[in-house]
Amino acid sequence: MKRLLATTLMLASFSAFAHEPVYNQESIKVLQEHALTNVPGKKTIMLTVDYAPGQATVPHSHTGTAVAYVLEGAITSRVNDEKAVTYKVGESFYEPAGSRHFESSNASQTQPAKLLVVMVLDDKAEVLTPLKQ
């Protein structure tokens, strides 16, 4: 997780345009992380992602499976070859292992947004891997 946060900070970029996404400024908080004793070599992580207006996560992939639930605001997500979908409070989405997550962003330029994410992944895997540009 420390490597993820370091990578996130290193990849920080700022845009001069108000409607361009601001990458790598989101706040990620790990709530729980546990080895799955019934599935050797796997772990589960529960985390929250807080987005200020206009913020986004850098395009990335996951080696593990993720389920996300919108706690606050609205989140726009585009995974693999699917169209972008905006999810509102109380809605959730699923990302299969190996997905390419091209967009995960706050849908609002004026209001914050927050996700609750639960993942199952290899015990040594990073939460996300930035996609090559």
Automatic annotation (TrEMBL):
Q: Which UniProt keywords apply?
A: Signal
- One Pfam entry name: Cupin_2
Coiled-coil stretches noted in the UniProt entry, renumbered to this chain: none
Record carries keyword Signal: yes
Under InterPro entries, the record lists: Cupin_2, RmlC-like_jellyroll, RmlC_Cupin_sf
Family matches, as SUPFAM superfamilies: RmlC-like cupins
Top-level taxon of the source organism: Bacteria
* Extent of the signal sequence: 1-18
Cupin type-2 domain spans which residues? 48-118
Protein name, UniProt field: Cupin
Which species is this UniProt entry from? Pseudomonas aylmerensis
